[in-house]
Amino acid sequence: MALAPQEGERVLDMASAPGGKTTHIAALMKNTGMLLANDANRDRCKAVVGNLHRLGITNTVVCTEDGRNLPSVMKGFDRVLLDAPCSGTGVISKDPTAKTGKDHQDIHLCSHLQKELIVAAIDCLDAKSKTGGYLVYSTCSILPEENENVVDYILKKRHVKLVATGLDFGENGFTKYREHRYHPTMNLCKRYYPHTHNMDGFFVAKIKKISNNIPGQEQKKKKKKKGEKEEDVVETDEGVEEMTETESGASSPSKSDSTEEPKKTEQKPNNPVNNPKMKKKGGGGEKTTKDKQNTRKERKQMKKGALSALEDAKPQKKKQKLEDQNKEESKPADSQPTQSPPKSSKKQKSKKEKS
Fold first, then answer.
1. Residue 247 is part of which domain span?
2. Is 140 a catalytic residue?
3. 215-250 and 286-354 are packed helices; what angle lies between their axes, rounded to 10 degrees?
4. Once rounded to an integer, what is the mean pLDDT over residues 9-26?
5. Which residue from 114, 169, 179, 287 has the fewest beta carbons nearer than 10 Å?
6. pTM exceeds cut of 0.90
7. How far apart are CA 310 and CA 252, in angstroms?
8. Selected catalytic residue, list 45, 63, 140, 189
9. Lowest mean pLDDT, pick from 19-23, 48-52, 109-113, 314-318
């Protein structure tokens, strides 16, 4: 009644065994759409399969998966029913052991499991569904630790809100209990007591999903994206500086200052730090790519000019070296014949004098 499934929808029953809720949902859907009946206990799923075959239901798929892992298996459901496992304090008249076999630690463990399941149920829903986006959370317990505490927890963890259950009878949920103060819309929930309604103790809450975004992960993703953009900008700046340093090292010292000034003027518009347009576009626009292509062409031309200047300078140096070597070789060849006769004449004169 509170879930109100429509024909052709995708519905999930997270704790379906033994199959009474699943078969009733399939009947309301008139055997159309898709119904996923899940239960973590494989043995109890046999009862679900038996009831489906007995009633001739063909729109249901039976699954044995931990409800906490369902968001990683399938998402995009229009409606989800979570009849969560609980301490069973509402059915003490049927099962007296629930009164003596449970302690405070067991209730705490049940509450923790219910919080994990309700988070997974909300993540399975599709907030953009045209007809749904609703979760019905119910327990057969009357303890606020398993009811209002769990609903108040999901209101803080996801983009959801409480809506009217559509049930005409029942007591309103607690907005405060002892030292606890809950959300004001908690009165939209419904409570049922054995001594007032002549039925088992029960709790029902209907929740609508507003957005598919997760509050904690939204900010982290934005921060990561901003960090990546900033890192990209820094890397492009470093790349430009490295190119200018390599070009300045490769260029010959004979270049004039006039050739270095155009480089600086050309690099300024391409620097994303100085150009606010490139900051906004993140260096991925059409203009930035054209500018990059133009700068690359200009850099190639500058490199070619520098290499050609170096090649022109090398042969001149070689010619000068060859000319210097030829002059050095020619000088001793001319001086040797001129200097030899005086040496011989001096020796003959010395011999004559001695004789």
1. 221-331
2. yes
3. 30
4. 93
5. 179
6. no
7. 7
8. 140
9. 314-318
